[in-house]
Amino acid sequence: MHICHVNLASGFSGGERQTLTLIKQQLAMGYQLTVVANPTSPFADEIRALEQCQLVLCKHYTRSHQRSITADCDVVHVHEGRAIYWALLQRLIHGVPYIVTRRIDNPLKRKWLSQLAYTRASTLVGLSSEIVRQITRRHPQANVATIPSSPVQYPVSDADVDAIKAQFANKFLVIQAANMYAHKGFDVTIGAAKVLEKHAPQIHICLLGDGKARAELEKQAQGLGNISFMGKQSAMGNWFAAADLLVHPSYSEGLGSVILEAMAAGLPVVGTNAGGIPDIIKDDISGRLIEVGNPDQLASAIADIANDEALRERLIAGSLEQARACDIRQTALTYQTLYRQVLASQA
Q1: Which CATH number fits domain 158-325: 3.20.20.80, 3.20.170.30, 3.30.10.20, 3.40.50.2000?
Q2: To bridge 188 with a disulfide, which of 34, 72, 249, 279 should be the other Cys (CB 3.0-4.6 Å)?
Q3: Given CA atoms 326, 42, 88, 139 in this order, what sign does their dihedral have?
Q4: pLDDT of 237-259, one tens digit each?
């Protein structure tokens, strides 16, 4: 089977990592792959390093529409917002079917081009039940499937893990890892740190990330001794191995790939009852769920997990089971079934 993956993002975040993980698995399964990527993105460098993929560099969705790019491809697989327009044009010009994986739980746009692009897709995939709900609200007649993300596996350096543990020696280390946008709930974590500072001095929180909200968040955390801003991290495997708990108190979230990554690394997790997070965190089974925007609940959940070893072990067992259910091998097989259905419908 020959699949053309399209991701035109300029950055390299969770969506690009998940796309790369699927591509690597499909190569292991013997697929032929073409990848259309933004030349300014680290994603393009990652694809170039794989060698087995045919890489097509594309700065804008209106460019790179030669017939030769998808002449031998069975299906185009879209992974990012602007890429859907590239797939639409390739469909209109050369007749190649495409599917769309949507990763955010925002309402779909009403703009005519967006609606046309979603209407012409053979199948729309949502990472979570909330994303699927948003898709079907705008496109009730569409063929829609739910396929969650798969956790990305990161390398671990024992020396670097030891260094992190030494830096926060004798602390129960809590991490939150995300780009510092308002909807990621870093303010809730800072609020929880204020609650915990006096009553749980053994707990320390590290915020891993950067972004336009950081300066304001640092002001909110001013004077707190139990929270550290560590900046954007490129070696998350070391932090997962060194930490005791991951929190992710987002106000909205498509699914929460970092939650799955922490689960696969054997961490207990706390997340909000928002977006797709409840799809992967079953309260008191594979983690703890709290209400959106509630620092007191977050502080209580952190303290409970820090102080109860039996609870930690039970949540870790549940999180590992959830991570296994989202293993990339199963995800790739699910997509394979979807590709075959698209091909059958074109026959």
Answers
A1: 3.40.50.2000
A2: 249
A3: positive
A4: 999 999 999 999 999 999 999 99
